[in-house]
Design brief:
transmembrane helix, transmembrane, TSUP, 0% strand, Probable membrane transporter protein
Length: 254
């Protein structure tokens, strides 16, 4: 990896860490950069997953105030996230690389649609939530099942998993979006960590890419948690969709 590529991977990791703390879908920033360095799609995904663990943890810590009073909810949903993340990571390691290369363009397309439609999803969630109603504690079996399935997706390919989490919780829980976003960060950290443990022992990855993204995402997670609410959602969304579109075109033409 050349010095220029290393700088690009570090910058992408920082951007992904900040974006994941606020919205999710930071993988759409790091993934195309890793592909541009010459890594295969599977190796890029594994390296990205390992590297983003510190960022997801720092983002969760940064939202600790919003996590107050949610211990029971977080512990319950984290069980489903761990199980789903493990299943997704196993699928990534056991399915042939050719299957991954066929599936990923579809997943990237889905992620881009979710990012682009996020304002519509958020408005729908706000309209559905009755003002002043009592908050549901855990969302019941439907939310647990939905978040577990979303975590399977996250363990396999993490782009926009945070948006799926917030959408599901917004529909099935009555709470503020900031508090739900805090839970999202914890669940993403659980999925990334569980998948990373498996990847360390059974997957091929690029240590240079992992370390660069790890340091960058850790810094980005802190920045995103502290100042991300000041960013324009429209600017972040445009950046993510633009970079993700380049990744999609690169994958299709690869």
């Amino acid at each position: 990896m050349t010095p220029g590529e290393m700088a690009a991977v570090f910058a992408a990791g920082m951007g992904a860490g900040a974006v994941n703390a606020v919205v999710g879908s930071g993988t759409l920033i790091t993934f195309p950069v890793l592909l541009a360095t010459g890594l295969s799609p599977v190796t890029a995904t594994v390296s990205n997953g390992l590297g983003l663990v510190p960022g997801s943890i720092s983002a969760a810590i940064g939202y600790r105030e919003e996590l107050r009073g949610q211990r029971r909810r977080v512990l319950l949903l984290a069980i489903g996230a761990a199980l789903g993340g493990l299943a997704g990571a196993v699928l990534l390691l056991t399915l042939p690389a050719s299957a991954f290369e066929r599936i990923v363009p579809v997943l990237v397309s889905l992620a881009l649609v979710l990012v682009a439609c996020q304002p519509l999803i958020s408005r729908w969630v706000r309209r559905r939530r009755p003002a002043g109603g009592p908050a549901r504690r855990d969302g019941g079996p439907l939310l647990f099942t939905g978040l577990t399935l979303a975590s399977v997706y996250g363990g396999y390919f993490s782009a926009a998993q945070g948006i799926i989490y917030v959408s599901l919780m917004g529909v099935l829980l009555e709470d503020t979006l900031q508090r739900l976003n805090a839970v999202k960060n914890v669940l993403a950290a659980v999925v990334n960590t569980v998948a990373a443990v498996l990847f360390l022992f059974f997957a091929d990855f690029d240590w240079t890419a992992v370390l660069l993204i790890a340091v960058g995402s850790a810094l980005g997670g802190v920045i995103g948690a502290r100042t991300g609410r000041r960013f324009s959602p429209a600017v972040l969304r445009t950046l993510i969709v633009s970079v993700g579109t380049v990744a999609l075109v690169n994958l299709v033409l690869h």
